[in-house]
Here is the input.
Amino acid sequence: MNLNDFLLVKVFKKSKYMEDFNNGNIYLNSTSYFWNLENTFQQDKEGAIFQQKGRGFLFKGNDAFLNILWKSSTVDDVIKYTKEENVGQLICETTEFSFRLNGYLCCFYLLPKKDVSFTGNIFSIITEDAKKDITIFLEKYLNESENHDFYATIYDAEQFCNIFTNGMRNKGYQTIYGKVNYKDIDEAAKILLYQKGDLQSILFTKPIIYNYQKEFRILLNKPSEETKGHISENIIGIEKSIYGSFCYDCIKNKKV
Here is the structure.
């Protein structure tokens, strides 16, 4: 994709969050944060590869361990043959176990420039499909918002990505960005992607039920540090990429 053809729309719960972000005070949650949200707009198993609930067992195996699985009809058989043939190790019994990729997410709604017109500080969506899409997106966000409100800023995609990623890289973060693909992928397919080293396909793919989000995301991680619940950093120059801002009241009063 050519970033110069797009705008990025970032939606915030509070005006202060928007002001802080646009002033370069960046607060980002890790992928694991989104696992436990009750807010269904944001809740997603971001970076998930495998998740098990209920009674289970965690084994450490080698290549020969596959033969154990093929000839076993029960978990008890697996445990028995593992001990007898010494081709693996039962590590522990589990009630819930998950394996996921982690990092920090910065998410946007991706809006083609061809669908937007600006007149001074007023912008308008000029195609019916684009109007319908962003209306659905904002309505879903509004319905899940704690205070039933939102504040949004529009950025030039190319400018923002250059400023943001260069700033974060200077602070030691690795960055990947791009639009999200919407496709239902089962655990077996995710494991194969992981084995092939195709981590981007895992982290930039979401279930089809989220396709209304038309998401563009930037994923960051810091190889020298363990991933925390969130990060807080300062980036200089983000305001240079801003096209404009709007809020729920603006839409109600038809100012956008």
Summary: The helical segments are 15-22, 65-71, 75-85, 128-144, 157-170, 187-196, 199-203, 248-252. Residues 38-43, 47-52 have pLDDT under 50 and may be disordered. The radius of gyration is 22 Å.
